[in-house]
């Protein structure tokens, strides 16, 4: 029995076509798409959530993000499982689920081991607990009232003063004001109300004739 070359060529071509079609059909049947929707615990659709799926047998990892409508999609995933999935979003608790499976279909939801299909995932807001802060205050008991400025001898010696007058040192007091005539005003009051004491003795301008509000004289070593 003679077999022509043309017959052999036709037979090989047909077998090749059948084999190629079978491989293509098998490939089409072994790819699945997975989808789901993500909501907050206030029923708000969550856009921009990060979704990570891991095929546990090979540890292949697939990552996507949810869209504006809260839906996420995975394409060309291997059917079966088990898969693990995690969903995270800033300010919310991360969802982690394991032992999930994918069916042989062009569009499927993730299926739990019990057979229940998961259509949506709910993210709960993360409660941030701040550490306890304890403030301790110490009460200072004093008989003095009003503001006070103490000028030490070191400051008096270090401060440049041309005329060694009292006004140069009174300027160190935050509440004081000295004008061009040398009049000193404390806390905005008239200079006639100034009170100067040396070792407890009154050293004011009793007659009220000095422009500066003092009785004149040289600079004191220390005053308050």
In a nutshell, what does this entry contain?
By secondary structure, the chain is an alpha+beta fold. Helix content is 16%, strand content 29%.
Question: What this model shows, in words?
Answer:
With 224 residues, the protein is α+β, with helices and mostly antiparallel strands. The protein folds into two domains: 31-123, Immunoglobulin-like; 148-219, no CATH class. 16% of the residues lie in helices and 29% in strands. The chain has three helices and 13 strands; from the N terminus they run αβββββββββααββββ. It has helices at 5-29, 153-158, 166-170, and strands at 32-40, 50-55, 60-65, 71-77, 80-88, 95-102, 110-112, 117-118, 120-123, 176-178, 184-186, 197-198, 201-202. The strands form four sheets. The chain has a six-stranded antiparallel beta sheet with strand order 3-2-5-6-7-8, with no helix packed on it. The chain has a three-stranded mixed beta sheet with strand order 4-1-9, with no helix packed on it. Strand 2 (50-55) and strand 3 (60-65) form a beta hairpin. The longest helix has 25 residues, at 5-29. The protein is rod-shaped and about 110 Å long. The model is unreliable at 17-28 and 217-224 (pLDDT under 50).
What would you say the CATH architecture of the largest domain is?
Sandwich
Query: What is the CATH class name of the largest domain?
Result: Mainly Beta
| CATH level 3 topology of the largest domain | Immunoglobulin-like
Unreliable spans are 17-28, 217-224
Shape: rod-shaped
- Largest sheet, if any? 6 strands, antiparallel
| Spatial arrangement of strands, main beta sheet | 3-2-5-6-7-8
* Count of spatially separate domains: 2
- What is the terminal separation in angstroms? 134 Å
Q: Determine Rg (CA atoms, Å).
A: 45 Å
Work out the helix count: 3
């Amino acid at each position: 029995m003679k077999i022509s070359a043309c017959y052999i060529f036709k037979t090989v071509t047909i077998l090749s076509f059948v084999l190629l079609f079978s491989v293509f059909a098998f490939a089409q049947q072994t790819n699945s798409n997975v989808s789901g929707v993500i909501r907050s615990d206030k029923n708000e659709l969550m856009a921009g959530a990060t979704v990570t799926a891991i095929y546990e047998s090979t540890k292949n990892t697939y990552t996507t993000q949810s869209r504006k409508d809260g839906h996420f999609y995975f394409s060309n995933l291997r059917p079966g499982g088990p898969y693990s999935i995690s969903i995270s979003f800033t300010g919310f608790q991360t969802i982690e689920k394991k032992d999930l499976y994918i069916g042989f279909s062009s569009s499927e939801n993730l299926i739990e081991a019990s057979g229940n299909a998961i259509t949506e995932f709910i993210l709960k807001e993360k409660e941030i607990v701040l550490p306890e802060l304890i403030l301790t205050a110490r009460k200072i008991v004093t008989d003095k009232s009003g503001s006070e400025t103490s000028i030490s001898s070191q400051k008096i010696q270090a401060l440049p003063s041309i005329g060694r007058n009292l006004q140069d040192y009174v300027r160190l007091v935050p509440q004081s004001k000295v004008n061009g005539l040398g009049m000193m005003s404390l806390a905005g009051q008239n200079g006639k109300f100034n009170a100067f004491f040396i070792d407890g003795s009154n050293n004011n301008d009793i007659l009220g004739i000095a422009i500066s509000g003092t009785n004149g004289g040289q600079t004191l070593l220390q005053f308050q």
